[in-house]
Design brief:
By secondary structure, the chain is mainly beta. The radius of gyration is 19 Å and the shape is globular.
Length: about 250
C-alpha cells in the first residue's frame, strides 16, 4: 500500500513539473498568463458537507489546473480528500476546434478526454469522448466520465449562445445519460449570465435501480468576479441531493 501511495504521489509530482515546464517554456509568447481561483462548498442532503478549491491557469491555447476536494471529518475517520492536476490544449482545426485533456488525482486516478467543436462560431456540432482507469474519484464534472458526448451549439440573433448536448455512459452498462441545455448571454462588456439545466436518468451501477433527477445552475460574472449556485437532484447518480455554491476571481 505504501509503495502504491508513493507511486501515485510521484506521478502527480511529475505531472506538476511537466505542466510547470510547459508554462515556463511558453512564457515568452505574446499571450498573457491569467488565473482563475474558484472555492466551492457542497451541501448534501444525507452526507457530510464538502469543499473544493481549484486554481486554473490560462496561457493562450494552454490550460492547466490544480485543486483539492475534501468531504467529511478526519476526527471520526470519515474524511475523503483528493488532490488533482490537469492539462488541456485547444487546437484550431479546419473544421473547428479540437481539445484533448488529461487529469491525474491522488488515490491512483487517471483520466483523459477528447472534445471537438465542428462548424462555425455561429453554428457547430459538439463531440466528446472520455476514459478513466476507474480508480476512486469524486466526480466534479457531475456527468459520466467514461462516456460519449453529442450536441449542437448556436449563436442566437441577440448574440447569446445556446447549446444542447447529451453525455452518455458507453462503458459501464449503467445507462447513465445527462441531457444539458445551456444559455449564456453577455449583458454588457463586464457582465455575463449563464443558465445550465439538465435532466439525468440511469443507474448508479450496472445492477442498480434507475435513478432520475434534474439540475439547474445559475452563474453571474461581473468583471473579474463570478458566482455560481446549483441545485442537483441525485448528484452523480447517488441518493443524495446537493446544493453547490462557487465564488471566484480571475486575475
Amino acid at each position: 500500500m505504501r509503495s502504491k501511495t508513493y507511486f501515485t504521489k510521484l506521478s502527480i509530482t511529475m505531472v506538476c513539473l511537466a505542466l510547470t515546464n510547459s508554462v515556463l517554456a511558453m512564457a515568452d509568447e505574446e499571450n498573457k498568463l491569467t488565473f482563475k481561483l474558484t472555492p466551492s462548498v457542497y451541501n448534501n442532503s444525507n452526507q457530510a458537507s464538502a469543499s473544493d478549491v481549484n486554481l486554473r491557469g490560462n496561457l493562450g491555447s494552454h490550460v492547466a489546473w490544480i485543486g483539492q476536494y475534501r468531504q467529511g471529518d478526519s476526527a471520526d475517520n470519515s474524511e475523503f480528500k483528493q488532490t488533482r492536476v490537469g492539462y488541456e490544449y485547444s487546437i484550431p482545426m479546419p473544421f473547428g476546434q479540437l481539445t484533448p485533456s488529461v487529469q491525474a488525482a491522488s488515490r491512483g486516478f487517471w483520466g483523459g478526454s477528447l472534445n471537438a467543436q465542428i462548424g462555425s462560431q455561429d453554428f457547430y456540432g459538439i463531440l466528446g469522448f472520455g476514459r478513466t482507469n476507474l480508480n476512486p474519484y469524486y466526480n466534479l464534472n457531475f456527468d459520466p466520465n467514461d462516456a460519449i458526448t453529442l450536441g449542437l451549439g448556436m449563436r442566437l440573433p441577440d448574440k447569446a449562445l445556446l447549446s444542447f448536448y447529451v453525455v452518455r455512459d458507453d462503458r459501464l452498462s449503467t445507462g447513465q445519460t445527462v441531457t444539458h441545455v445551456v444559455w449564456r448571454k453577455n449583458i454588457n462588456e463586464h457582465q455575463r449570465v449563464t443558465v445550465d439545466t439538465a435532466y439525468k436518468h440511469g443507474r448508479e451501477d450496472a445492477d442498480g435501480d434507475v435513478i432520475k433527477g434534474r439540475m439547474v445552475s445559475l452563474g453571474f460574472d461581473h468583471k473579474e468576479y463570478f458566482v455560481k449556485i446549483a441545485r442537483d437532484q441525485k448528484v452523480n447518480f447517488s441518493n443524495t441531493d446537493q446544493t453547490r455554491l462557487s465564488v471566484g476571481l480571475r486575475f
